[in-house]
Amino acid sequence: MSLTRHEIREKAFQALFALNANPDADEDQLFQQLLNPDDNAEIEIPSYLSTLVTGVLEHQAELDAQIQPYLSQAWSLDRLAKTDLIILRLAFFELTYVDDVPDKVAINEAIELTKAFSDERSRKFVSGVLGKTVGRESI
To answer: Fewer CB within 10 Å: C terminus or N terminus of the chain?
Structure first.
């Protein structure tokens, strides 16, 4: 099974969302369920999936500290929808720690994740936050 990076980002989002709800879940077992829900045979986990999920979890405090200044004063990380926060963490992780992903790609992929897992308000919000990170008001 060969996944595109876009599909891997979707699986990473799903894994991070599940781990947010159940931090004690077994990551490898979760990956297997996401990648191969109908078959009991284990499949190889794409390394980029592990990179994203492990990286976001390990750098979560730093990522949250990077995100916070881009929120209006009325908003805190606790008030954000979990989907928006996880998508922003993924985007900031790629922007900060993944050298072979251009900033424009990381931002576009985050917006695509909002289209798949959230709504139009979230898409505009995530786009606005990420647009500020690259010096524009919105993407």
So the answer is: N
Q: Please compute, for residue 124, the number of CA atoms within 13 A of its CA located in the half-sphere on the CB side.
A: 3
- pLDDT, tens digit, 9 for 90 and up, residues 92-109: 999 999 999 999 999 999
Determine contact, residues 100/80, Cβ cutoff 8 Å: no
pLDDT in the model for residue 136: 44
Give the pTM.
0.91
In the chain the first and final C-alpha atoms are separated, in Å, by 33
CA distance 75 to 72: 5
Give φ, ψ of 25 to 5 degrees.
Answer: -65, 150
